[in-house]
Amino acid sequence: MIRSKQEYISILRKKLRRYRHSEEIVAEIEVHVHEMLLEFTEGHKMSEADAMKKVIEKLGSPKEIAAMYHEELGVTESKTQWTFITVNLLFFIVGISLTAIYHLVSYSFATHIWSILTSIPFIIIVLYMFFWGLLGYEIGKEFAYKGKRLLKKTLYISLIPNLILMALVIFRIIPLGWFDPLLTGPFIILCIICTALVFPISYAGYRWGVMRSV
Q1: Residue range 155-181, pLDDT digits in tens
Q2: For the stretch 11-25, what's the b/e string if a residue is b when 16 or more beta carbons lie within 10 angstroms of its beta carbon?
Q3: Is residue 169 within 8 Å of 176, Cβ to Cβ?
Q4: Which domain holds residue 23?
Q5: What's residue 72's pLDDT?
Q6: Contact at 8 Å (CB) between 214 and 68?
Q7: Are residues 195 and 162 in the same domain?
Q8: Is the same domain home to 93 and 156?
Q9: Cα–Cα distance for residue pair 50/1, rounded to 1 Å
Q10: Whether residue 45 is found in the same domain as residue 97
């Protein structure tokens, strides 16, 4: 019977030693074990041995966690990564295409869609932030503790279109006037804040996904 955090982590480290990034996985799990132990020992006044029983019930034994990494997953890291990167890229392609059609071609349907979208910019931002949270959640749920590196890599690649669009607007390759209905002071500030929150929101989704996976 496992009676302490040190024993739990030691067993887990041995069972995961053949895995790439095993130390990163173990460190992430150790954080969860520590948080749960504090909850049970300080919040519920349990001994460490009794608290470890509760931790294992909720988190799983080292053997169970290691078995999870032995299983063949139907979803590969590459597939998950490029699915989200592609979806994010499609957002930009559709958005830029619609903007170009609205300003360069007299097309009533595009005008109607443009009017709707420019009237709900804050709703669009909320939905876009939800997309980043969903990205983190799916990676956490599918890959658990070994998904942290994948999350960071996916975020960095996905943000490239954002930076390219920003550069195109700043250097006037795309006319600034095309975005006049949106480029108000409050909206620009909100966009900056939301960009800064992309990783925290994605990481929060990732942590939630990890907890759901174990």
Answers
A1: 989 888 888 877 877 787 777 677 766
A2: bbbebbeeeeebeeb
A3: yes
A4: 5-60
A5: 43
A6: yes
A7: yes
A8: yes
A9: 11
A10: no
What's the pTM? 0.62
Rg (CA), the chain: 23
Q: Are residues 119 and 37 in the same domain?
A: no
Read out DSSP for 148-167? HHHHHHHHHHHTHHHHHHHH
- Tell me if 70 is assigned to some domain: no
Answer yes or no: do 189 and 96 share one domain.
yes
Alpha carbon distance 189, 46 (integer Å): 48
Q: In which residue are the tokens 């007299």 written? A: 106
Strands of the chain, DSSP E? none
The two tokens of residue 46 are: 């349990």
In this structure, the answer to whether residues 170 and 200 fall within a common structural domain is yes
Q: Is 200 left (phi over 0), alpha (psi -120 to 50) or beta?
A: alpha
Encoding tokens for residue 120?
Answer: 């709900």
